[in-house]
Amino acid sequence: LDKNIVFVAAAGNEGKSYKDQTYYPAMYHKNIIVVGNLAEDEYGEVIRAPSSNYGKEVDLQVFGTDIESINKVKMTGTSQSTAIVTGRIAQHVKAYRLTETIRKISDQGRDNYYSPLYKFME
Fold first, then answer.
1. Cα–Cα distances in Å, from 6 out to 32, 47, 63, 93?
2. Under 8 Å between Cβ of 43 and 17
3. What is the pLDDT of residues 75-117, one digit of tens each?
4. How far is CA 70 from CA 37, 73, 74, 79, in A?
5. CA 80 to CA 13: how far, in whole Å?
6. Is-contact 21 27, C-beta < 8 A?
7. How far is it, in rounded angstroms, from Cα 24 to Cα 58?
8. Which long-range contacts (C-beta less than 8 Å, at least 24 apart) are formed by 90-95?
9. Are 66 and 28 spatial neighbours (Cβ–Cβ below 8 Å)?
10. Model's pTM, two decimal places?
């Protein structure tokens, strides 16, 4: 946290309020992004999954219900929601770093490896 590394933690799957329990690592520090799980009820309405912990400490909730794993097993829980959020954050970080790299190349006007000129377009 001191190095500004982004941490994402699952809210937990006890279906309890954070008022009633302490759950780590999600509650370790206020700068950790805490992710809960969403589901659909029998009417197709989006709800907090009954198993997902909840409370003001939960920063966001994402569908983590019936997520197909790499071995084709469907899994449900805040860990699945957390993986989805972590992937999205990684995409944004990668895009930002790529953008910054292109911007630096554009500032130089020439790439040392490929030699054509690059222009950063916003």
1. 7, 27, 21, 10
2. no
3. 999 999 999 999 888 888 877 777 776 666 556 554 444 444 4
4. 20, 7, 9, 15
5. 11
6. no
7. 12
8. 93/6
9. no
10. 0.75
